[in-house]
Amino acid sequence: MRALAAAALVPLSALAIAACGDGNGSATAPAPHRQTASGSVAVSVANSRLGRILVGANGRTLYLFTKDSGTKSACSGACAAAWPPLRANGKPAVGSGASAALVGTSGAQVTYNGHPLYFFVKDKKAKDTNGEGLTAFGGTWFAVSAAGNRVSPPASPAPTPTPTPRATPTPTPRATPTPTPRATPTPTPSNPIPQNNGGDGDADNNGGPDDGDGGV
Q: How many angstroms separate the CA atoms of 75 and 63, rounded?
């Protein structure tokens, strides 16, 4: 009975040692997660806000990297942690909308129209395109069209110009003509000397009042 109990403890202790490290106190890091496609659709086409783009078996957006040279990837280390490459065990399967003639591999990484394909860690669900147009690790990342070309991000709509209000012309006031005052005729002073042979009738006043000269 004791022998059986001791035998049962052996594999448990072995697992504990493996989990704790290599005996030098250092923990063994888990193998990095890789996006792979085996026995399932590796590349297909789906509709998104960018139009029809390539997606992986999980429906997540696939990207190309402008720094890559042909089918040779320029993304490794920290870059590959942020942009995991699409890998396939054997010949990649092709789904609806994708062209089998454009699908290939470079090592274990799947390529399309000569571009190595990648996922983006910040795409959390199918058809997210959070990596579109980002510049990182020395190049720019773009979603891939069904024809194998990069998809440009949608252009921002141009702002609607605010119409300039038309200036309302200020009416010019019509000049009110100043009336020309009518000239008041100067009255002719009346002659106090009676006329028409009035007065004493002599020649020196021609009919004026009597000037007291006795008619001379």
A: 12
Q: Give CA–CA dist 159/170, Å, rounded.
A: 32
Write phi, then psi, for 190 (nearest 5 degrees): -75, 145
- Torsion over CA: 133, 134, 135, 139 (sign): negative
**HEC readout, 26-62:** CCCCCCCCCEEECCCEEEEEEEECCEEEEECCCCCEC
**H-assigned helices in the chain:** 2-20, 78-82
For residues 88 and 36, the answer to whether their CB atoms sit within 8 Å is yes
Q: How far apart are CA 58 and CA 40, in angstroms?
A: 10
pTM of the model: 0.57
CA distance 62 to 67: 16
Tokens of 35: 């996006």
| Gap between the Cα atoms of 80 and 137, Å rounded | 10
Dump pLDDT digits (tens) for 142-184.
Answer: 999 999 999 987 776 777 778 888 888 888 888 787 878 787 7
CA atoms of 83 and 135, how far apart (whole Å): 12
- Which residues are CB-contacts of 157 (< 8 A; sequence separation ≥ 6)? none
d(CA 79, CA 29): 19
- Could you please report the per-residue DSSP string of 57-80? TTS-B-EEETT-BTTB----THHH
